[in-house]
Amino acid sequence: MEGNLFTAVLFATVVAGTPLILTALGLLVNERAGVLNLGAEGMMAVGAVAAFATAHHSGSPWLGVLAGLVAGAAMALVFGFLAITLQANQVASGLALAICGVGLAAFVGKPYESLALPAVPPIRLPFIADIPLLGEALYNQQALVYASWALFWAVLYFLYRSRAGLVLRAVGESPAAAHAIGHPVVLIRYLAVAFGGAMAGVGGAFLSVFYTPMWVEGMVAGRGWIALALVVFATWRPLRVMLGAYLFGGVMVSQLFVQGAGLQIDFPSQFLSSLPYLATIVVLVAISRNPATIRLNSPLSLGKPYRPDA
Fold first, then answer.
1. Fewer CB under 10 Å: which end of the chain, C or N?
2. What is the pTM of this model?
3. Res. 1 pLDDT band, cuts 50 70 90
4. CB atoms closer than 10 angstroms to residue 184
């Protein structure tokens, strides 16, 4: 019985952490290029409704994922035009994108609120899925869960083992120096912003097509903000992003298991539902007490506009 409970909790933790991994890794690449985009909540919401609508009309969840990717990237490019080309304040532009995206998703998704998609069957990996306790939890998952693991390794390799990743990090550290030696800083930042938006859109698509195959207004429920906090929590390191995503995913599902088990507790259910967000605040406060921890890996030009000399 305890083994079944452990497997169920681990399974739910991995699923809950997947949209955070997808979104946070995209934001990590985005911020490594020196661009701070606070619009993850809006990009996830637009990606979620675009994916649901496309999957509903086409009957293909993968076309839905593609639509979510494109919608998230398109939203990010709007931010990129404001923040990179027009040199608007990145914080204000990102907040505007978040608010606009959530509102746009609610408006577009109104006709789809009473609809549901067929559940997408998980992919069970033979042999390793038979490992006791861990097998069913880790290797009987949706395809996007495995894709999030592949994305982690791809981002890790790109940032620390490829020349393109080195150039991107150089742009995030000193765009003037990168421009001086011939790198297209503006193009690199646009590509990084588009990638961050695309991954946020895929994270939203996972929610509306795979996690809960239906559209409900507000279904992103603050995950975009948690993903943003994860990047800081991880001090811009991919491995810490992944571990942090599963940590927050575990906090999210723990309150569901506590409520589902009918345990007698002295706290109201609303307090349990707020635990993931309280944990986010606590972690950020703890990190902020030591500024050196944040400066350790933070790109030096993060949030600072740059215009190449004519």
1. C
2. 0.91
3. very low
4. 14
